[in-house]
Amino acid sequence: MSKKLYGTVFAKKNTKEVEDFVASINVDYKLLKYDILGNIAHAKMLGKKKIIPKKDSLALVKGLNKILKKLASGKISLSPSGIEDVHTYVNLLLEKEVSKKVADRLHTARSRNDQVTLDTRMYCLDATQEVALKIIDLQKTILKQAEKNISVIMPVYTHLQPAQAILASHLFCAYIEMLQKDKLRMMHAVSNVDEMPLGSCAARGTTLDIDRKFVAKELGFLKVSRNSIESVSSRDYILEILSAVNILAVNLSRIAEDLIIYSTYEFSFIELDESYLTGSSMMPNKRNADTLELVRGFASKALAALTQVSGLLKGLPHAYNRDMQFDKEALFESLEGVITALTITEGIFSSLKFNKKKLKSYLAENDFIFATDIAEYLIKKGVTYREAHDVTGSLIRLCLDKKMMIKDIIEKDLKKICKYFSKTVLDKLTDASYSVKAVKSEGGTSLASVENQIMHWRKVLK
Fold first, then answer.
1. Residues 6+ apart with CB under 8 A from 88
2. Among the four 175, 241, 427, 431, which has the fewest Cβ within 10 Å?
3. Angle at 5 between CA 68 and CA 46, to 5 degrees
4. Which one from 99, 191, 280, 394 is the annotated catalytic residue?
């Protein structure tokens, strides 16, 4: 039984080192299901067009369906030895179900060049759909937390310095917004995956009267590829998916960083469920957010995968080149990795809790974050922006020099800084609830604005 789909032209056999070097079965076994499904559609088409005898077409379909059932039940090894690639493996499995002569008909009007990109596209359609569904799950979970904690107030940071007071639900809606754009990017990438390449053969097509539209319909593709050379030599669809995964991973990393910071002992704004924490082998006191650190760390792998495949393709001539064998490992790791990262992040959000007592005390003890509210109060009194900024800056400077808070300044000193200042006014302006409620701009952090955002996401995610 031959273990290769080629060989008679060669006078010498490959060395074991060469066979091991060119083998890809250890990676592309993940395409096994898709290779079988593609083979079934191809066998049906060959019989329909009378390119092979109808009885052979039926035998091939029957044999391939048996292999598919064995695969689903775990009766097929996913790590066969001495086999070059997934296409060869399916051929060998098929020879056990039908005669070798019948099995040999299957590769009619086809090359491994168009076969591998067919399998990869089918894998991408399934995996990207799973990514999109995981994004939706995460969005829904974050939305529930936003609804549950809609009135919780926290500081927002710029340059990692406390800046202003916001509703925590407003920050969570920002996460949902980011993830929505990630989902749309993924869906756009999928639109370029959804074309059927089989029938492009090695590069130019075939002289045999095949029916590509039939195969596309059997496999659920929206359309067939227009150009056979581009079809087998392009991996733009992989680059586009990897780019979408990279941006998604970066956004997940930034969300993870927020949660890591806010859950530290020094901040303690949120509490993470212990089921998502790990400990130290040396320090019994440690409760580490390792899961979030790994979500953050995954972003570097997603970037590396995008860079790897970009570098792989940039110097390749048309049409197919064996370099492309290395595109799949990066693709598989990225898609599977981001699915895991989304799952972990969703679990963390579903179980986190806000430390409302700590947040309330923080806002009460750090009233500098209301400086912008004070400046905008002066603007409403007719003061120019620059003067309002300077006056408020003088107020903060006085507090820094005397090591006190705004609420501690006496009435006499307030009047010296600005005639519009009084204890009553500043007590009101440095109240967190008033600060948040006072925001009027569309898309801002007021309760009404956040309620509108939540209502919008309820409809979108329904």
1. 3, 4, 5, 25
2. 427
3. 60
4. 280
User: How many residues in total does the chain contain?
Assistant: 462
Give 19's pLDDT tier (boundaries 50, 70, 90): confident
> 296 and 266 in one domain?
yes
Tokens describing residue 295: 């979500």
Identify which of 458, 436, 461, 459 has the alpha carbon closest to the alpha carbon of residue 447: 436
Same domain assignment for residues 225 and 84: no
Same domain, 119 and 60: no
φ, ψ of residue 173 to 5 degrees: the values are -65, -30
Q: For 328-350, b where at least 16 C-beta lie within 10 A, e where not — what string? A: bbbbbbbbebbbebbebbbbbbb
Q: Which CATH number goes with the domain that contains 186?
A: 1.20.200.10
Is 280 in the active site? yes
* 159 given a catalytic annotation: yes
Q: Which of 79, 159, 281, 441 is catalytic?
A: 159
What whole-number distance in Å separates Cα of residue 175 and Cα of residue 169? 10
pTM listed for this prediction: 0.93
The rounded distance, in Å, linking the Cα atoms of 60 and 53 is: 11
Stretch 79-84: mean pLDDT:
86
Specify the number of domains making up the chain. 2
